[in-house]
Amino acid sequence: MVVWQSPEEAIDDGWRLLEAAAGDPGHPCRLMALATICVGRPAVRTLVLRRCESSTRQLHCYSDLRSAKVAQLNACADAELMVYHPQRRLQLRASAVSTIATEGSLCDDAWSGLDPRQRREYLDCASPEPAEESAARRNFCLLCFSVHTLDVLLLDAQGHRRVQGRYGESGWASRWLRP
Ligand SMILES: Cc1cc2nc3c(=O)[nH]c(=O)nc-3n(C[C@H](O)[C@H](O)[C@H](O)COP(=O)(O)O)c2cc1C
What we know:
The protein has 179 residues and is an alpha+beta fold. Helix content is 25%, strand content 42%.
C-alpha cells in the first residue's frame, strides 16, 4: 500500500492514478462519475475518462452535444468527477470548470481515434436513411474539465487519510483533512 508522507505526495498520487486510468481501458478508475447541476439539483452519470494531463490539470471525456449533461454544463460550467479504486481503497474527487469543444485538433484527433461502431453512437437513431458519418461528427464533443480542487481519500485500518489540494496562483496547496 502507498502511504503518503505528505499531502503533496497524495495529490501527486491522485494525478498519477488519473493518468494511468486515462491510458488503460482496463484500469479500475477508467469509469468516472460526473456530477453536474440541473436547475439547482444534482445529476450524476458514468463517463469514460479519455485523457488526463496533470501539468495542465485537464481531464477529457467524450460526449454527445444533444445530451442533457452538455446542456447542464452549458448552463453551469461547475462539475465534479469521482472515481474509486477498489484494490487501493482510494477515492478521488476532482472539482472542475468545464468547457465543451466541438472543433480543433484535440476534438478532431479524438474523433479520428473512434472506430466505426463508436462513431455510429453519435447518429440520430430515428433517421430511416443510412446517415453520413459527418452527421455523427456534428453531434460529437469533447468535455474538457479544468481541475481546481482534488480530494484524495485513502481508507486504511490504521486510520483513514484524506488530503485536499487546491490550485491557486502559486500552484497546488494541499492539506490533511479530517473527516
Ligand atoms: C459504463 C458506462 C460508460 C459510459 N460512458 C459514457 C461516455 O464516455 N460519454 C457519455 O456521454 N456517456 C457515457 N455513458 C452514458 C452516460 O452515463 C449517460 O447515461 C448518458 O450519457 C446520458 O446522460 P445525460 O442524460 O445525463 O446526459 C456511459 C454509461 C455507462 C454505463
